[in-house]
Amino acid sequence: MAKKKQAKKNAGKRKTGDSIGDALRVTPGFQLADLNPAAKPAFSGKKQDAEKVMAAARNEIDDLQERLYAGGRDGDGPAVLLVVQGMDTSGKGGIMRHVVGTVDPQGVKLHAFKAPDAEERRHPFLWRIRRELPDPGYIGVFDRSHYEDVLVVRVHDLVPPSTWGRRYGQINTFERKVNEKGIHVIKVMLHISSDEQKARLQERLDRPDKYWKFNPGDIDEREHWEAYQEAYQAVLDKTSTDENPWYVVPADHKWYARLAVQQLLLDKLRELDLGWPDADFDVAEQKKRLAAT
Amino acid sequence: MAKKKQAKKNAGKRKTGDSIGDALRVTPGFQLADLNPAAKPAFSGKKQDAEKVMAAARNEIDDLQERLYAGGRDGDGPAVLLVVQGMDTSGKGGIMRHVVGTVDPQGVKLHAFKAPDAEERRHPFLWRIRRELPDPGYIGVFDRSHYEDVLVVRVHDLVPPSTWGRRYGQINTFERKVNEKGIHVIKVMLHISSDEQKARLQERLDRPDKYWKFNPGDIDEREHWEAYQEAYQAVLDKTSTDENPWYVVPADHKWYARLAVQQLLLDKLRELDLGWPDADFDVAEQKKRLAAT
């Protein structure tokens, strides 16, 4: 009871001294506008320290990922799904490259959701999401996701407000069903400042080796900055549940965001308490057979 | 003319002093049985040296892969397809993890071909292969491939010999068409000895954390070792073409095989002479727009 009271009192506050995951988890009352995108919650080191922490975690992640994969070989066992959202230039690609990219690619199923194509538009918005859910044993990674259907779609009213308005509840129901399939979800929002986005877009315009990353539409979208912040706030208010909470990761420092997402993945893998599957054959018998070859 | 004569004289021989790729490329007359699976062609260093070479190549591969990816953004530009074949335990998984795994996962499309399912069996054998070809800008990776249709299928006569016998020519035609789509193919066979396979299977039976990798069927297959070697020899004889040659990589030393495949990938990326795409927008105009936000 006292605990609950305390939780209410701390609503929306971030504690330091906790794990990064505890510090970044969205609780009721959380206000996006109050979080400094340049903050480094629950981490007091510098960039080089973060790189050391990340390097040190890699062996454990490797080991846990292999156990996860092994457990999926007979078609059941858990899976993990990392959902990454964020404004243009918030560093989603860097997460894919520097965090997801350190995991054995055989156990990863990465999908980048673009604007839906003609076939996808003919189906309910969750149809294409369902098709990309990870099989048992896999770490699925969504670069953008079903949340675009209450973000860009809401900002531009691509469907009537009554339609997108229903989607928050549909998403919560969907994610509970995803959990029931044994898929453990980590939802990450990379949170950057408007100034940092401007600097990153500027870099893409200053460097010919970055032109290909630039799209004039990015500036159109930038003009809807406030509307996007509101749409994200609504996502956090309505879809950060006990089962599937959001983690808002301050991302003006790319190195902090990478560290944070790696730690969230590590925490989730640890939680699963993964063993090695038993042999589904007679070990002694197979040894005898092998020796005879 | 003199060159041609020399080539004929050297048929099946491996030169040292060349690049690893030159040393491993299959030329007419090549005999698999003559290649020592413990050899380290065109590399005189040890394991630690190989690891240094691999680490040093990573930045260049990163850069080239990003150029490849950038070039594919408008739906054309080249792609690369790495085909990896080899007996059970030959280290295909290690190549995926330690070579493919160092490349940005956003630009990689990895597919492991298993025994065909019911739907796949209803189609011609190349149907499922075609579906997994990389789009422009991607590095496609096949862990097993259409070559299984002249390997396991031949060894076990899963289709009549007249059917698998026609497939070599069909594969050559198919791969030429793949080239015409702008997909550059690297075909790698990981070559291990029977003794090394025995040791690796033994390890899977000795270590409970490896049980999940063992399948009693692996020993059944091992009993067809000679038939598989013959089937591989036929593949090399019939499908190592000027356009799409095979590279046979001695793989008893895992570290050598990884180094070799990384160098083959690097060589191919270098060959493509990849620049950065031009801006398809007016840079000055977009800078002005951005400044105004």
From TrEMBL, chains A, B:
Swiss-Prot/TrEMBL keywords: Kinase, Transferase
InterPro entries: P-loop_NTPase (IPR027417), PPK2-rel_1 (IPR022300), PPK2-related (IPR022488)
Residues annotated as domain Polyphosphate kinase-2-related: 46-270
Example GO molecular function: kinase activity
Residue segments, region Disordered: 1-23
SUPFAM superfamilies in the record: P-loop containing nucleoside triphosphate hydrolases (SSF52540)
The UniProt record lists the keyword Kinase: yes
Basic residues bias spans: 1-14
Stated name of the protein: PPK2 family polyphosphate kinase
Native source species: Flexivirga alba
